[in-house]
Backbone:
């Protein structure tokens, strides 16, 4: 990576970027929400567009000099609509949480009722957690998953009819099954609710047609752009045309200041990349790799919440091993595997300790891992967990993970 000028100006920051690149190259990235974006995306994000103020919308800005910015933002909007089959797109949200916040602001008043997946069952902070704006200012009921790791749609329906939410949210941060958007639409219609799908995790799979699309069923679709979609860090809101004005007003002036036009350019590039036939192959491989990893872990005698995954992620349930998510995530880091601790349903441990580890395959698939590699990764994970106190075993496993990283070089 060319850091020629940075090295001269700020060697401290340059050094940490070098080290971070090495960390990414030499570790197996299994954080389900991370990925490695292309150099083309990074060039757009590192461009002169960072210099420009462009509050407002294309052709309706509060600053002059936006003629090129306008073209770029319109390209991003058009590509988002085309890729996801939605009528309107606002590509300005700085993150997925901000995208969700804008939907709340556009259609709800403080105190209004919301029904969403509970955080400890796989939902997201911005879907109504009591420590987030969404839970502080709105009256939120949370649905969960059953013992098969699936959403209990009949229970969601019951809760919707009882709670009478103005907004139902489907979509999760940690859910390994296919989401039935049609069923959610039927429930929303029965309860008289609006429907928001937060597809942040599965956006790449939806874009590639590997996961059913929420577009025919949902009033609003929010996403991040940096997870399975493999773009820069940011968010997008899509909606039916009739909500376009309210959504745009909620983003600006409601919630945000100047849009990050350099990141919007990166989003445009990523959306174009996601339209290519290679991306479809990539998305298919993400799921194949996740299934191979899950099978490998099951074969090693480990438990997975809900058993076999249907998408890009899974949660290892460590309860029967007597070990915690916190400790095992640290052990995995020592053998060169990066993942995050995660609660499992009815977790006896606190959210800071947990009994689970979430694992996902978008990032390793980008660097070329295939099923045979995932079987090796499963063996490394299982051995690390079973032999977490054996320094010699851990040292050997670190060599194995490095070997896999070398087999699939990144940014070189
Ligand atoms: N932090 C993201 C994740 O890891 O799933 C959600 O925002």
Residues:
């Amino acid at each position: 990576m060319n850091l020629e000028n940075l090295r001269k100006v700020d060697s401290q920051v340059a050094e940490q970027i070098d080290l971070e690149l090495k960390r990414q190259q030499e570790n197996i990235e299994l954080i389900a929400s991370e990925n490695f974006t292309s150099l083309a995306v990074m060039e757009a994000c590192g461009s002169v567009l960072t210099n420009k103020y462009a509050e407002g919308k294309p052709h309706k800005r509060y600053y002059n000099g936006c003629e090129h910015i306008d073209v770029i933002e319109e390209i991003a909007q058009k590509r988002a609509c085309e890729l996801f089959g939605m009528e309107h797109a606002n590509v300005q949200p700085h993150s997925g949480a901000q995208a969700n916040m804008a939907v709340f602001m556009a259609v709800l008043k403080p105190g209004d009722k919301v029904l969403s997946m509970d955080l400890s069952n796989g939902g997201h902070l911005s879907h109504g957690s009591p420590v987030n704006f969404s839970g502080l200012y709105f009256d939120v009921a949370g649905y969960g998953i059953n013992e098969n790791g699936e959403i209990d749609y009949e229970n969601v329906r019951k809760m919707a009819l009882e709670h009478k939410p103005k907004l139902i949210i489907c979509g999760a941060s940690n859910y390994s099954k296919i989401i039935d958007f049609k069923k959610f639409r039927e429930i929303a219609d029965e309860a008289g609710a609006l429907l928001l799908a937060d597809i942040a995790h599965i956006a790449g799979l939806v874009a590639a047609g590997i996961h059913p699309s929420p577009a025919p069923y949902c009033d609003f679709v929010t996403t991040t752009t940096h997870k399975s979609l493999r773009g820069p860090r940011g968010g997008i809101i899509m909606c039916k045309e009739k909500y376009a004005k309210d959504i745009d007003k909620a983003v600006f002036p409601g919630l945000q200041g100047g849009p990050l036009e350099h990141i919007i350019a990166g989003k445009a590039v990523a959306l174009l990349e996601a339209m290519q036939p290679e991306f479809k192959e990539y998305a298919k491989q993400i799921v194949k790799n996740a299934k191979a990893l899950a099978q490998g872990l099951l074969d090693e005698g480990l438990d997975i919440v809900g058993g076999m995954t249907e998408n890009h992620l899974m949660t290892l349930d460590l309860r029967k091993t007597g070990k915690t998510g916190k400790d095992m995530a640290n052990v995995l880091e020592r053998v060169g595997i990066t993942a995050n601790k995660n609660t499992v349903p009815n977790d006896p441990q606190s959210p800071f300790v947990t009994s689970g580890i979430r694992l996902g395959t978008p990032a390793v698939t980008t660097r070329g891992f295939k099923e045979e590699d995932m079987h090796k990764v499963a063996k490394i994970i299982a051995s690390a967990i079973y032999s977490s106190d054996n320094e010699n075993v851990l040292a050997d496993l670190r060599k194995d993970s490095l070997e896999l990283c070398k087999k699939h070089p990144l940014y070189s």
About this structure: Residues 33, 96, 124, 173 surround D-serine (CB under 6 Å).
